[in-house]
Write a structure and sequence with these properties.
Blueprint lengths: L4 E3 L7 H9 L4 E5 L9 E8 L4 E7 L2 E2 L5 H5 L4 E2 L2 H10 L16 E4 L7 E5 L5 E6 H7 L4 E3 L3 E2 L12 H13 L8 H5 L6 H10 L6 H9 L2 H11 L13 H9 L1 H14 L15 H18 L8 H10 L2 H9 L1 H13 L5 H9 L3 H11 L4 H8 L11 H15 L13 H7 L3 H13 L1 H16 L1
Parallel strand pairs: 1-2, 3-8, 4-7, 7-10
Antiparallel strand pairs: 2-9, 3-4, 3-6, 5-11, 8-9
Helix pairs in contact: 5-17, 7-8, 7-11, 8-10, 9-10, 9-22, 11-13, 12-13, 12-19, 12-21, 12-22, 13-18, 13-19, 14-17, 15-16, 17-18, 18-19, 19-20
Length: 469
Amino acid sequence: MNTVAATDGNASLPQLIEKLLQQQGVSYRMRQQRHAGPAAQQIQACLLSDNIGTVLILIPKDHLLDLKRMPELLGRELEPMRDAQLSHILAKHQLNQLPGLPILFSSPCVYEQSLLEHPRLWLDSGLEGWCLELEQADAKALVAKASGARFAVPLSSIAPLPSDPDQDHQDIHAAVQNFTALRMRQRLEETIEIPPLPETAQKVMKLRVDPDANIDDLTDVVETDPSLAAQVISWAASPFYAAPGKIRSVEDAIGRVLGFDLVINLAVGLALGKTFNLPKDAPERTTPYWEQAIYTAAVIEGLAKVMPRDKRPELGLNYLCGLLHNFGYLVLAYIFPPYFKMICRHLEANPHVPPHQIEQHVLGVTRDQIGSWLMRYWDMPDEIASAVRHQHEPDYRGDDHVYANLIYLSLALLRERGIGGGPLMAIPESLLERLGLERDQATTVVEKVLDARDALRVLVNQYQHTWRS
């Protein structure tokens, strides 16, 4: 049988790969990724490794690869191959993504048996934006020398986020209990020793709810914290705000450049950020924590400004929601330090699965639940706790839904441009209608933010430097 290399565009596989497919009698059609079929019929490839060698794993994209099952299945403790090593392998074949082609790798291949139950399959070609369409017979020929098994976890079997936020306490406690020998009756805050809300944040939050508070009051609080004072002045002097003249004092920075609300949010974000260290481990191919936080805050701020006035939420809280939306990630690493590495490796092995679903499967609780619980424990505004918890629910219409909806839209827009982690996020028309936005407006906002990427990066670096100090 000859290889059929029909395409619906101009891309073509490297000659060596085409020759190998032809030798194996595998016919295919080159398709643009957007024309691929249902997730159950799309193949997700992952190259795992240990000190023995590598193993190629093929699963449907509506399933999750549970690394904890590998020792039972293969008798080996395997982890996703590091990006540097993988990039070297792909470069040899003139590819920029991992293809689901066992013929390219001199290593065993294991595939999820349910894949071959479908009449047609689509697998990543190794070229960004393109996939290979295979008939069932050709898919069987492709994995003829591989081993089939039933080991992947259907995403449909992973429990959704509970509808009641009061359940979060029990879920976190149960997750702690699963990984420790602590008694179930211990209170959560005693079990994981969560630190209190930092003093500076407490003072700033009191000013936020005080209708008589002014710039002088905020200046007094900021000036009592040297690192915060330096941060406020450096932000005001950054290219992003392009303030005329030299910034001479904290009062000057607040009154002339940043404004009362923005400094309130920056101060709270900085104070909370310094409560937990960035984890030493992190999933590869994800945006660094503070970079994602600040980009998300900037996009949310821009979206809120173009919303109709009758739908527009409190602008100050918007920015703070953006800064804190992923705070549960830090707390997750703090609560489960021995298991955070496991979560990181699962995120790398399953780039097609949203991170919160991976966490739900591995731990029984998500970073969104943990972050939201901590916001409530610290008596932060209800809007923030709700936004953090429901940020991955595009159809959420509960109390203060606008904040959660704006986080979701911001994350989805940034993900389309390669910022963040996990798969692309759909943007339902109903979400845009709820916020009173047009897609073109949202696109313009995120493009303006990314046009200022160099200036934003300065702010990110300043935030990271102040945190480390």
